[in-house]
Design a protein that fits this description.
The complex is a heterodimer of chains A (280) and B (368). By secondary structure, chain A is an alpha/beta fold. Chain A has ten helices and twelve strands. The termini of chain A are far apart. Classes of the chains: A alpha/beta (280), B mainly alpha (368).
């Protein structure tokens, strides 16, 4: 339960092909990370997987059933989204924002605020319930939205929902390194608990360290799928990002990490910043 | 390093002690109700014919038991039922409709500056209503007579609806909504509709239309039971539909995609919101002209008291909107007595500074 499969998905919008003939399986119990340069189609693939956009060609199926056949309410019980740069222009308290996650008609979460409180504790924001959302930092807001998604899934689980999916579009973008690690660790724990966890990330090292499955997208097509170790190679990164990078595998723990390479040849060549990056 | 243990079971229920703050502002609704009652009684008592508070119940109850013999009581009874009661009810309905419409538009457009008057919906409704009066006898519009005295509110509803749909189209055009675009488009629409409204007033001989202040500044001066009857079905429909939209509007505040992920049928709900607000604004404009700022001031004030949850904002706005317009009408009637100010001037004096404060404190972007 909780398996999303994209088969031959093409999305065209305003005369442009955003993704073309994409096949992708998002498995429960795994952290799947979509990477690729800007405009590669990562967010588009995520939107098709979550059912908010329809595929122009091909199908997206949740547990074998076409995702467009689900009613919004049914889907809401199965999957939650943490959108990119989610914002809110009104002075809700943090507790109220998290409770919005359970505003699906019929959840009746009002009677069980402990789910919202628990979700905030999970993202490290215990005690933030009465704070004004508009006065939070970017990183705190991001975590509030993750808590909102958790609140949605937990409330649905109380109603018997199974095989749940959480989709996060660049959830670490405004977080500091420690918070990034916390969010990735949370994703790991969610996957261990059986959820299908799907992220879009820009940070290759974060992706390499935490992904079970990496899906590399470029120009609307899937370029590679597999474990970070198998997928991340110098050649692939060079062709996908048009960016000379070196993939390293330190002998100690065997995990790959990526360093920019040939920095001196790039446009910022000669600057101290470039040299520092190269030295790692 | 990457195998950080998180001891909290991520999907555990109720692992923490529940201590979420109580919903804000539960006390606001009863207090708003009391305020409305006080303002309503004041509205009935104030006017050229003084009806003291003591004689108000007597004048109200008179006539139930048959003919009134006391001439003074008879006069008070006539003033009360013929003039003041319909005027008070009309003000209350107009205020409720505009305040609720404002709150819903602000939710739909995700911005507290979206007021039906400011973004041109009221102007579109007024233009349609004026067109019916000016051109109602022409063959093109003669069929509108089938609506009887509902022709005006129905036309205003259609005018408001068309304007709203244009605004939604503008708002959705570039993907992300620019509030500056929305407000400026509203200014343009209001200017065009206002010009056409003025033009129609001059090509028409109709006495009612000559009173341009009704359409441009809003007034309750021509209140009658007919108008109360005309607006009543719209207000009733609003009261029935609105409560079911509160949760969806909360979801909309997060963004349309997020609302969809929360299980809201976005396109259908959006259409219901647009039609409902157009009906509310249309009905209000048809009987009272363009009364600005009610939809801006009331929800803004209510959010300060209750927070932005629409399950509280909508009902409290309905009550306080009624109180504000009835109160403003009292002021309009007494401040230059025996003459009368247009209601819209009183509302602009209250609403202008609030709008300015909102713009300056949030920036036109209005987002964060």
């Amino acid at each position: 339960m909780g398996r999303i499969e994209l088969s031959g998905v093409t999305v065209m919008r305003g005369g442009r092909t955003l993704i073309a003939d994409v096949d992708m399986a998002l498995e429960p119990g795994r952290v799947t990370v979509l990477i690729g340069p800007n405009g590669a189609g990562k967010s588009t693939a995520l939107k098709v997987a979550s059912g908010v956009w329809r595929a122009s060609k091909g199908t997206a199926a949740l547990d074998g059933r076409n995702i467009t056949d689900f009613r919004p309410r049914e889907l809401a019980e199965r999957r939650a989204l943490v959108a990119q740069g989610a914002s809110l222009g009104f002075p809700f308290t943090v507790g109220e924002v998290v409770m919005l996650g359970a505003s699906v008609p019929g959840f009746g979460l009002d009677a069980s605020p402990e789910i919202a409180v628990g979700a905030l504790a999970t993202v490290g924001l215990a005690g933030f319930e009465a704070r004004n959302y508009l006065e939070l930092s970017g990183g705190e807001r991001q975590r509030v939205h993750i808590a909102r998604a958790l609140c949605q899934l937990r409330a649905a689980r109380r109603h018997g929902a199974e095989g749940q999916i959480i989709l996060l579009d660049e959830p670490t973008a405004s977080l500091d390194p420690a918070q990034q690690t916390q969010v990735m660790a949370l994703c790991r724990v969610l996957a261990t608990a059986g959820l299908t966890v799907v992220l879009v990330l820009h940070d290759l090292n974060l992706a390499a360290a935490w992904a079970d499955v990496l899906v590399v997208l470029a120009k609307g097509k899937v370029r590679a799928v597999g474990s970070p170790r198998d997928v991340l190679t110098d050649d692939l990164l060079a062709s996908v990002y048009d960016w000379p990078a070196r993939v390293n595998t330190p002998p100690r723990d065997g995990e790959v990490f990526v360093l920019p390479h040939h920095a001196r040849d790039m446009s910022f060549a000669g600057s101290d910043a470039g040299r520092d990056v190269r030295r790692g | 390093m990457n195998r950080v243990e998180t001891r909290i079971d991520p999907m555990a229920l109720g692992a923490q002690v529940a201590s979420l703050p109580k919903p804000r502002g539960r006390w606001v609704l009863p207090i708003a109700g009391v305020a409305l009652v006080i303002v309503a009684i004041t509205s009935l008592a104030v006017g050229p014919t003084g009806i003291t508070l003591g004689s108000l119940p007597r004048a109200l109850m008179a006539g139930i038991g048959g003919d009134i013999t006391d001439p003074l009581l008879r006069r008070e009874h006539l003033v009360l039922f013929g003039i003041r009661l319909p005027r008070m009810l009309l003000g209350a309905f107009v205020g409720s409709a505009l305040a609720v419409a404002g709150a819903m538009m602000q939710g739909l457009f995700r911005n507290p500056l979206a007021d039906p008057g400011l973004i041109g919906v009221s102007s579109g409704a007024a233009l349609a209503a004026v067109a019916i009066i000016a051109l109602g006898a022409t063959p093109a519009l003669a069929w509108m007579r089938v609506f009887g005295f509902y022709a005006l509110p129905v036309a205003a509803f259609v005018g408001g609806l068309v304007t709203s749909l244009v605004l939604v189209w503008i708002a959705n055009r570039g993907g992300a909504l620019s509030v500056a675009t929305l407000l400026l488009s509203g200014v343009a629409i209001a200017a065009i509709a206002g010009a056409l409204t003025g033009l129609m007033a001059y090509v028409s001989d109709d006495r009612e239309l000559r009173d341009l202040t009704l359409w441009s500044m809003g007034s309750l001066a021509g209140s009658s039971w007919t108008k109360v009857t005309a607006i009543l079905p719209f207000v009733a429909a609003l009261a029935i539909v609105t409560p079911s939209l509160a949760r969806a509007l909360n979801g909309f505040l997060l963004g349309e995609a997020e609302a969809y992920h929360l299980g809201i049928a976005v396109e259908r709900v959006k259409l219901v919101i647009v039609v409902t607000t157009a009906a509310a604004v249309g009905a209000a404009v048809a009987v009272a002209g363009i009364v600005g700022f009610v939809g801006l001031v009331v929800p803004h004030f209510v959010r300060l008291l209750t927070g932005p949850d629409h399950r509280m904002v909508l009902p409290v706005s309905a009550v306080l909107g009624a109180a504000l317009v009835v109160g403003a009408d009292v002021v309009a009637r007494i401040i230059v007595a025996p003459a009368e100010l247009p209601l819209g001037i009183v509302m602009a004096v209250i609403g202008g500074p609030v709008f300015l404060h909102l713009v300056l404190s949030r920036g036109v972007a209005g987002a964060d």
